[in-house]
Amino acid sequence: MTNIVIGSGPAGRLGSYELGKLGEDVILIEKNHIAGTCLNEGCMVICALSDISKFIDSNNRFNDYGFIKSQIDVSYEKIVAKITETQEKLRKLNQIENESVGNKVIYGEAKINEDSVEVNNESLEYDKLMIATGARPHIPDIKGSEYGLTNKDILKIDEIPDKLNIIGGGIIACEVANIFATLGSEVNVIVRSEFLKELDSDTKDYVIKHVLPDMNILENTDVEECGKNKVITTNGDELEGIPFFATGRVPNSEIAEGFVDLNPDNTIKVNEFMQTSRDNVYAAGDVTGGWQLTPVARMEGICAARNIAGYLNKVSYNSIPQTISLNTEVSFAENEKIGDVETETIAIPGIAGPGAFWKILSGNTGYSKIEFDKQNNKIKKINSISPSSTSDVAYLSYLMRIDSPLDEYSNFLEIHPSTDTNYKIIKNLWL
Length: 431
Hints:
Blueprint: E1 2-6, H1 10-21, E2 25-30, H2 36-40, H3 43-65, H4 76-99, E3 104-107, E4 111-112, E5 116-119, E6 122-125, E7 128-131, E8 135-137, E9 163-167, H5 171-183, E10 186-190, H6 201-211, E11 216-218, E12 223-227, E13 230-233, E14 238-240, E15 242-245, E16 249-251, E17 281-283, H7 294-308, E18 322-324, E19 330-334, E20 344-349, E21 367-373, E22 378-385, H8 389-401, H9 420-430
Parallel strand pairs: 1-2, 1-7, 2-3, 7-17, 9-10, 9-15, 10-11
Antiparallel strand pairs: 4-5, 5-6, 8-16, 12-13, 13-14, 18-19, 19-22, 20-21, 21-22
Helix pairs in contact: 1-4, 1-7, 3-5
């Protein structure tokens, strides 16, 4: 009995690996590069570039303090070359990992038939199928949109743009704006509604004032037309700079049209077991909509794999931690299980955790805001800005997810300074 997985991004790669570990026969089909958007065009590229922007930010701070005198000469061409070299190594490792559990990896464009998948002019029969074809950047229907770049083009740029117009106001838009503003580009962020509406308003204000480098943020502004090196807004303003679209994602669900049921937004419709309208066909990751996050895609892929192998499994989407990769990370989570109850809110400044010591002199060590159910001693929502917020909020979101009262956290022993922020947050909640 053969199982076929189409797409090797986080959902498909982890799903096929899980199936192999469970002793199932698996064929993994990938159209382009193994590991999907995350490694090749998305979060891993952003993380690599963010490492460089953090280094530049630290260098500028140390120069201001006067104990280091240095000038940085950035070669974007060499950055791209080294990112590409690293990607090639990781692709090989990801393929070896999948093959290590007996899976077969095939490269080519798949076509789904009733009981088989066609790839490279070969018909492969399957017992069960997982569709994990991901998503792609959404390109708005405006005049001149063909001139716009997306995250798929970040490694195709020859040099750091002098001016960049980023269209969109979500996490991807913010991360790209931070990177190129730190690298020296003059950046406009053009937002149809509100910038970073994922964040609490106080957290958003702190990010704009203390975390992001200088950039021009235009809220409640839409783009009417793009040119090769300009955008024209609906207000009639003409802004010089390369257009860059960060306006959401579109599911790669065309492969499944007419084969399984789709949602109104063309994502593949699945139930809580990641099962489609066909009993033997499953789907996972961005192609199903919902949370467009690598950890969630992995979780869905593993869930689908276990169900395919006969081990009933469901995904819980409560208290999903998220982060914005900036020069100082911004992380947040919310416990949706806590309904309309009376809550209290505390806001505390950041402290000298990892990476924060040399920010104390400027007073920009961060900020955390926590809303909690004091009667039951449980966190409802947290927004945190600090160099360690990615681990801090991951820890706390786990407590939120398992519905643990904070009293049970009292025996937690931090490793100084890596988890000091956790200790301070919990200590404040106990007061």
